[in-house]
Write a structure and sequence with these properties.
Helix content is 35%, strand content 27%. It has 14 helices and 27 strands. It has an 11-stranded mixed beta sheet with strand order 3-9-10-16-13-12-11-24-27-23-22, sandwiched between helices. Strands 18-17-19-20-21 form a 5-stranded mixed beta sheet, sandwiched between helices. The protein binds one RNA strand of 78 nucleotides through strand 13, helix 10 and helix 11.
Length: 489
RNA sequence: CGGGGCAUAGCGCAGUCCGGUUAGCGCACUUGGUUUGGGACCAAGGGGUCGUAGGUUCGAAUCCUACUGCCCCGACCA
């Protein structure tokens, strides 16, 4: 059998690239750092988007759309935020091209068409949105505003990787405005919970919920809540963040409201987002050396039916019956009627694409009133009676979803290591990787030194943990609880 | 922005050192046939301004110069 995917042990990065390519998820484009998301990859994103959108609506949010371009003067209003993104902004400076007099049929930027004010291509939309909210908010009766937008953003990255880090990416960004600090914090936490639930229940990707250290916090936030997942190579992936923005943007954009006592107050804010990066996380959480592995809840196709040998009438009719029965249960099914490819080729191909369940139907099976069912997560094959096949598959899909989560959780838990000395820290980081749970003195200096010396960063300060007196692994100073370090994507 | 590599058919490559008929191989593609329970086989086909521009030469994919693009590794980052 021709191996088309580099094994994880041989070269993890190459394995990841191979999966993206061979599973037909995305490809590089003519634009540096920007990828083309192909139909199958986009279908996965659509399923993520649809589910998240539903969860946002259920928590009271509505969708809207704000412009791609942000005037520089607005962008720079909230200084910390602007500074945080300044180094990776694309800027529009002109609005017209003209024929290049020195070249044949070539175009050049028309120097006459310089914009009076440059436009920043949004790396995030707080600025344009808070500029707008100023007009929308007068009274506490106008609050809260609970808006989400699905959009593309641009961050001019030095080095990019499909899905994990691209110059342009798709995401959603929630931007809410509140009359009180408590309500805003509650909102940020609520969306943090939504992300964690989505990651675990739909992506089958276990996450650690926590908040960021000051160094790692979103520029312009008072607090950043994060979900952190662990990839199979022992590196952490920040999978979603929810920010309590305090009154920083309200002050920067002068957004005040009259409270019930008719006094002016600055509005309290949150923002929260997840991106196409989640697709990268999904790949690296479950997939194996044979290709992509998808959890049923996000798989565009749940079941592929492969007729064996060549599709003939009897087999196709049976395949159609099974497909109809499965579809009646809300399961998405495709029958592969291609006569030019052999079954073995199809098996390998569908495994590469991570389709959770494959049903093979041959004449021999039909004589015995069974079909062959193969599950992608364990590669297990079984002979299953036709009678009740629909319910069997339905249960199997649930089982696969659960199994993927359990498997990822076991791996994750086995790779959270409690360490109490810096020597141990460096050793575990080097030899085992994963999350390191240890004491830290709470200072940015220590965090920075550890980062410089080991490349590990504080992924989060976990929300759920017992308070425990200890000593910082680096400085030996007292600490009241453990934080999670890791090398990160 | 530093350091390394690559550019020849849709994709992956050989040929370049040491210039010489008509530039080759695998996969993919087209047509016909035999096949089909884990990546089938046979036969016949189509497809190239050898990254761009200039130079050396009787003659350049091959030598020289400049340019452009892409990939990998670092610094930076979700």
């Amino acid at each position: 059998m021709a191996k088309e995917i580099t094994s994880r042990s041989e070269n993890y990065s190459q394995w990841y690239n191979d999966i993206v390519k061979k599973a037909d998820l995305a490809e590089n484009s003519a634009v540096r750092g920007c990828m083309i998301i192909k139909p199958y990859g986009y279908a996965i994103w659509e399923r993520m988007r649809d589910q998240l959108d539903k969860m946002f609506k259920e928590t009271g949010h509505v969708n809207a759309y704000f412009p791609l371009f942000v005037p520089k003067s607005l962008f720079e209003a909230e200084e910390k935020n602007a500074e945080g993104f300044a180094k990776e902004c694309a800027i529009v400076t002109h609005y017209r091209l003209k024929n290049d007099p020195s070249g044949h049929g070539k175009l050049m930027v028309d120097p006459e068409a310089k914009l009076e004010e440059e436009l920043v291509v949004r790396p995030t939309s707080e600025a344009i949105i808070w500029h707008t909210y100023k007009d929308w908010i007068q009274s506490y009766r106008d609050l809260p505003i609970l808006i989400n937008q699905w959009a593309n953003v641009v961050r001019w990255e030095m080095r990019t990787r499909p899905f994990l880090r691209t110059a342009e990416f798709l995401w959603q960004e929630g931007h809410t405005a509140h009359a009180s600090k408590d309500e805003a914090i509650e909102e940020a936490k609520k969306m943090h919970d939504v992300y964690a639930t989505f990651a675990e229940e739909y992506m089958a990707m276990p996450v650690i919920k926590g908040f960021k250290s000051e160094n790692e916090r979103f520029a312009g936030a008072d607090d950043t809540f994060t979900i952190e997942a662990l990839m199979q190579d022992g590196k952490a992936l920040q999978a979603g963040t929810s920010h309590f923005l305090g009154q920083n943007f309200a002050r920067a954009f002068d957004v005040k409201f009259s409270n019930a006592q008719n006094e002016y107050e600055y509005v309290w804010a949150t923002s929260w987002g997840v991106s196409t990066r989640l697709v990268g996380g999904l790949i690296m959480t479950h997939s194996d050396d044979d290709g992509l592995v998808l959890p049923p809840k996000l798989a565009p196709i749940h079941v592929i039916i492969v007729p064996i040998p060549k599709p003939d009438d009897v087999i196709l009719q049976k395949a159609q019956e099974i497909a109809d029965a499965l579809r009646a249960l809300g399961i998405s099914v495709q029958i592969d009627k291609d006569e030019n490819k052999r079954p073995g080729f199809k098996f390998a191909e569908y495994e590469m694409k991570g389709i959770p369940v494959r049903i093979g139907i041959g004449l021999r099976d039909l004589q015995n009133n069974v079909v062959e069912v193969a599950r992608r997560d364990t590669k297990e094959k079984m002979s299953v009676p036709l009678d009740g096949i629909d319910v069997f598959i339905q249960n199997l899909l649930e089982d696969i979803q659960q199994n993927l989560f359990n498997r990822a959780l076991k791996y994750r838990d086995e790779h959270i290591t409690r360490v109490d000395t810096y020597e141990e820290f460096k050793m575990v980081l080097e030899e085992k990787g994963g999350f390191l749970s240890c004491h830290w003195d709470g200072t940015a200096e220590t965090e920075e030194l550890i980062k410089q010396e080991t490349k590990a960063t504080i992924r989060c300060i976990p929300l759920r943990q017992e308070m425990e007196e200890g000593q910082c692994i680096y400085s030996g100073k007292p600490s009241k609880g453990r934080v999670i370090f890791a090398k990160a994507y």
